[in-house]
Write a structure and sequence with these properties.
Layout (H helix, E strand, L loop, with lengths): L5 E2 L7 H11 L8 H14 L3 E5 L2 H11 L7 E4 L6 H7 L4 E4 L11 H9 L8 E3 L10 H10 L3 E5 L7 E3 L5 E3 L8 E5 L12 E5 L2 H11 L3 E2 L13 E2 L10 H12 L1 H19 L4 E2 L6 E2 L5 E4 L3 H10 L2 E2 L11 H8 L5 H9 E4 L7 H18 L1
Parallel strand pairs: 1-16, 3-4, 3-5, 5-6, 6-9
Antiparallel strand pairs: 2-10, 7-8, 7-14, 9-10, 11-12, 13-15, 15-17
Helix pairs in contact: 1-8, 2-8, 3-4, 3-7
Length: 385
């Protein structure tokens, strides 16, 4: 029996997080109080965007993102097949079509050349937008995608669920932080427990557009506003102006998000230290996600590709290491196969999936635990390959 029990991801809750939540629990407002707005302001400042809207989860954020950009039945968007289902499902929520562009086999990100090929294969206006995903924490070069999107009159929703605090260097040698809105119309973040900022559940939309911000704020709360006070009415007056949703974040979750956000930069440094140790140990022996020069990978995941994956996976589990698979290509899932994607030509994504898994990656991973992971990975590789 091994003494280790090392998951692929783990939240890290400290005393200041607990104190913040307890203080909110003892306050007068558990929801629709001051903490949500405080979290929004601090998050917008953190990523460099003008506006931020807190959501109950990132899936809700993606849903409102496509609604705010008027995506509708019969429209078409492009995204990557290597992502969590929500990145594509948000389009299906409004009966729009999803078209997949294959990934780059080194970075695992949506390939801009494959995206361009797809756009060229159809008349201009055929597609409405692109949803690039910062997979594993590695940012997509949105400057390049913005040029492509402008050429074809497309909007961009940046799926930043893996990458708060990540950045890339643009052509002017400026660091461009995920969610800053300089190239994407909207960005969406996740606060699931295994993500960088753990709220239990939660998400955030960021944008630089006042129009989009106002639209999302309305849709988040049932389509109701109290901003149009009518003469002869008191402060009870409200209007439901459109069909909206209850996608609010509570003050309890926001309180946790505020303290978690304050520690994110320090934790990204730790994630990169862990990643660099893996890279040094595995270089030339195990394939891993390539991070180009000029990019700060936020390292939500550390993804490797290995042969004999099932045997490898079972070996690690016996050794007290629990990896995870990120992700099964969306076009191969039963739902997407049933609506016409069964024969999609996405060989890079499918080849990646045959061999991929994610090793433990979280700031509280100890040196002893990581050394054990590295030792066992190399032990298997040296024996089986």
């Amino acid at each position: 029996m091994t003494k280790f029990n090392i998951p692929y991801g783990r939240h890290n809750i400290e005393q200041d997080d607990i104190d913040s939540v307890v203080k909110t629990l003892q306050s007068d407002l558990l929801t629709q109080g001051p903490k949500v707005e405080e979290f929004e302001h601090k998050f917008a400042k953190y990523v460099g965007a003008k506006y931020a809207v807190a959501m109950c989860n990132a899936t809700a954020g993606l849903h409102l993102a496509v609604l705010s950009l008027n995506l509708k039945k019969g429209d078409r968007i492009i995204t990557t097949p290597i992502t969590f289902a929500s990145s594509a499902n948000c389009a299906r929520f409004v009966d729009a079509e999803v078209w997949f562009a294959d990934i780059n086999p080194e970075t695992y990100l949506i390939d801009i050349d494959k995206t361009r090929e797809l756009l060229k294969s159809k008349p201009k206006g055929f597609f409405k937008g692109i949803i690039p995903v910062n997979f594993g924490g590695l940012p997509v070069n949105l400057e390049d995608f913005k040029k492509l999107a402008d050429e074809y009159d497309l909007w961009i929703i940046e799926d930043s669920c893996h990458s708060p605090g990540g950045n890339f260097t643009n052509s002017k040698k400026q660091d461009q932080y995920c969610g800053n809105g300089n190239y994407a119309d909207i960005s969406v973040f996740s606060f699931h427990p295994v993500k960088h900022i753990a709220c239990g559940e939660g998400g955030m939309i960021t944008t630089n557009s006042k129009e989009i911000y106002d639209r999302v704020m309305l849709l988040r709360t049932h389509g109701i506003t109290k901003n149009n006070m009518k003469e002869n009415h008191g402060n009870w007056y409200y209007e439901m102006q459109t069909l909206g949703f209850n996608y609010r974040l509570t003050d309890i979750h926001a309180s946790l998000g505020i303290t978690q956000l304050a520690k994110n930069d320090k934790r990204i440094i730790k994630r990169n230290q862990i990643a660099n140790k893996y890279i040094k140990a595995f270089n030339g022996k195990v394939k891993f996600q390539h991070t180009p020069s000029g990019y700060l990978n936020a390292y939500h995941l550390f993804v490797v590709e290995v042969k004999k994956r099932k045997k490898f996976f079972e070996f690690l589990v016996k050794e007290g290491i629990v990896p995870q698979i990120h992700y099964i290509p969306l076009h191969t899932l039963p739902y997407y196969k049933s609506i016409g994607y069964e024969n999609a030509d996405l060989k890079n994504a499918e080849n990646y999936y045959k061999n991929c898994f994610s090793l433990p990656m979280y700031p509280s991973l100890s040196d002893e635990e990581q050394n054990h992971v590295i030792k066992k990975v190399l032990e298997f590789v040296n024996k089986e390959y």
